[in-house]
Design brief:
Length: 486
C-alpha cells in the first residue's frame, strides 16, 4: 500500500541525522512477531481479522503496520520541519502504539522487551550473553514444558483430565517440591559465595507483579537464617514520591509500576550509607495520606544483610555504585507453560495472564480494589516490567519459577459461579479506549472457562494445597505472614 510520507530524516541517539527508511521499521516489527511464532499468535476475530484476510504473509502484514507508523508520524507537523525530525525513540513509541491499537499485544510486548534490552546493553548494564531478547528464554520454557508434558499437564485438556482423575494431587506435591528445591539451590549458592569470601550485604528478591515474591522472600530467608545469617528488611514502598508528584490519567489512575515512582536518588544514597555502616533517616510513607509523614533511623549492623523484596531490584540506577560482589539477586517469575485447548493450535496460554488473575484476586480480597480497575491498570504494570524487570532478568544470580500447574484451577472458583469476581463485558463500555484491558479480559475469561477448577472447599483445605504454597498469597489461607494483605 502506498502512503504519503513527507518525513525525510530521522535523528539517531547520537543526534546524527539519517534518511527515514520505512523498511527498517517493517523488519523490526517482523522480527518481533517471528520471535513469538508469527503474527498468528495475535490473531483476534473482530479485532484484527480483516488485516489477516487482506495480507498474504507475515511480511505483508509487517509492511502494512510499518505504513501505518509512517502515517502516524506524518500526523505530527513538527516532524515535517527539517530541524525537528522524529527521533529513534519517537518512532519506537509509535510502533508500539500501532501494534497495540490493532490488537497485536504479544508482538508489542516482544518488541518492547527487545527494545529495552538493547537500551540496557547500550547503557552497559547488560552484556550480550545476558541479553534476554523478547523476554521468553526458550531453554527455560522448554524445560518447564517438558516437566509438564511428563505429568500430563502440558495442555488445558490434559490438565482438566488430570484434575478429574485425581492425579492432580501428586502434581501439586511434585511442583511444590520443585519450587522448594529451587529455594534450596538459591540458599546453597549464597553459602558458596560467602565461603569464597564474597562479603554479601544485600539480598534482592525481584520479579514482576504477583509472581510470588513475598512467599519466596520469607521461605528463602528462613533457610538462610538456619545458616546463621541475620537480616534487616528495608521497605522500599516508603520511598514513593508523594501523590501530588504522581500525575493521574483520565480515569484518575496513577502509575506506581514504574521505577520512577520511587525516589531513586534518595534510595541509592541510603543504600550506600547503610553499607558504610551509617545511620539513615528512612522515610515513612502513608498510603492513606499519599505522602511521607516522617522518618525513622535505620542502621545496618556489621553482621546483617540488607533484605529487599522489590519489583525493580534489578534496575541499575537503584544500585549504581554498589559492587556486584556485595549483592545476591533472586529473580522470580510465575512461568508455567501450558498450551491452549488440546495443544493443536500451538498457542501457549500467557503466564502474564495468570499473574493478572492473581493480582485481580489479591486486590479484590485485600485492597478493596475491583478486578475491573486492576484490568484497567494492567497496562501500567506491563509497561513497567517490560522496561525495568523482564529485560534485566539475565542479571539475576538465581531464577525461581513461581508458577505452578495448579494455579488456574485454584484461582477459578473465585471467578465463576454466583459469587464470581469476574467483571461483566458491559463494564468495559465506558472505557472504549482501553483495548488492552478488553483483550486481556476476553482472554482470561476464556482461559478460566476452559479450565476444570477446584472447589472453594478444596482450595481452603490445607491438606490439598499447603498453607505455605505461593498461591496462598492470593487465594488466602497462607501460613506465612503476607504484610501487603493485612
Amino acid at each position: 500500500m502506498a502512503v504519503q510520507n513527507r518525513i525525510v530524516k530521522v535523528q539517531k541517539r547520537n543526534r546524527a541525522l539519517v534518511r527515514y527508511d520505512a523498511a527498517r521499521i517493517s523488519k523490526a516489527i517482523l522480527r518481533a512477531a517471528s520471535s513469538i511464532g508469527g503474527f498468528q499468535q495475535d490473531f483476534l476475530p473482530d479485532i484484527n481479522e480483516r488485516l489477516f484476510r487482506l495480507t498474504q504473509s507475515d511480511e505483508q502484514l509487517a509492511n502494512f503496520l510499518s505504513d501505518i507508523v509512517t502515517v502516524c508520524l506524518n500526523g505530527d507537523p513538527r516532524h515535517l520541519i527539517s530541524n525537528f525530525p522524529p527521533t529513534i525513540e519517537m518512532i519506537q513509541e509509535e510502533v508500539l502504539h500501532v501494534l497495540r491499537s490493532y490488537g497485536f499485544q504479544n508482538t508489542a510486548d516482544a518488541y518492547a522487551c527487545y527494545r529495552w534490552g538493547r537500551h540496557w546493553l547500550r547503557e552497559g548494564a547488560l552484556t550480550p550473553d545476558l541479553f534476554m531478547g523478547n523476554g521468553f528464554p526458550a531453554a527455560r520454557l522448554e524445560e518447564q514444558l517438558a516437566w509438564n508434558r511428563a505429568r500430563q499437564v502440558h495442555t488445558v485438556t490434559a490438565l482438566n483430565e488430570t484434575i478429574r482423575s485425581g492425579r492432580i494431587r501428586s502434581v501439586i506435591a511434585e511442583s511444590i517440591a520443585g519450587y522448594e528445591a529451587s529455594l534450596d539451590a538459591a540458599a546453597a549458592k549464597i553459602r558458596r559465595r560467602r565461603e569464597r569470601g564474597d562479603p554479601l550485604r544485600l539480598l534482592w528478591v525481584s520479579g514482576p507483579s504477583s509472581s510470588g515474591k513475598t512467599t519466596t522472600t520469607v521461605k528463602l530467608t528462613q533457610r538462610l537464617e538456619q545458616q546463621g545469617l541475620k537480616f534487616l528488611m528495608l521497605n522500599l514502598d516508603d520511598y514513593f514520591w508523594s501523590l501530588v508528584e504522581h500525575p493521574t490519567d483520565w480515569i484518575n489512575d496513577r502509575n506506581y509500576e514504574t521505577p520512577e515512582a520511587l525516589d531513586i536518588q534518595l534510595l541509592n544514597q541510603h543504600l550506600m550509607e547503610l553499607l558504610e555502616g551509617r545511620t539513615v533517616q528512612k522515610p515513612i510513607y502513608s498510603f492513606k495520606e499519599g505522602r511521607r509523614i516522617g522518618t525513622k533511623p535505620v542502621q545496618l549492623l556489621p553482621d546483617q544483610i540488607l533484605l529487599l523484596d522489590c519489583l525493580h531490584g534489578l534496575y541499575p540506577p537503584i544500585t549504581e555504585g554498589i559492587p556486584a560482589r556485595l549483592q545476591f539477586r533472586v529473580y522470580i517469575e510465575a512461568r508455567n507453560v501450558l498450551y491452549e485447548g488440546d495443544g493443536r493450535s500451538q498457542r501457549l496460554t500467557k503466564f502474564t495472564d495468570v499473574r493478572l488473575i492473581r493480582r485481580m484476586l489479591r486486590d479484590a480480597l485485600h485492597r478493596n480494589h475491583s478486578p475491573l480497575k486492576t484490568m484497567l491498570h494492567w497496562h501500567y504494570v506491563r509497561a513497567g516490567e517490560l522496561f525495568s524487570i523482564i529485560p534485566l532478568q539475565g542479571l539475576a544470580d538465581h531464577v525461581i519459577n513461581g508458577g505452578f500447574p495448579f494455579d488456574l484451577p485454584a484461582l477459578k472458583p473465585f471467578f465463576s459461579g454466583e459469587q464470581s469476581l469476574m467483571p461483566r463485558a458491559e463494564d468495559f463500555d465506558s472505557y472504549g479506549g482501553f483495548l488492552d484491558a478488553r483483550l486481556r479480559y476476553d482472554r482470561v475469561r476464556a482461559l478460566l472457562d476452559s479450565v476444570a477448577g477446584f472447589t472453594r472447599a478444596e482450595v481452603a483445605e490445607a491438606r490439598f494445597i499447603p498453607g505455605d504454597a505461593v498461591i496462598r498469597e492470593f487465594v488466602g489461607g497462607s501460613t506465612i505472614r503476607i504484610p501487603h494483605n493485612e
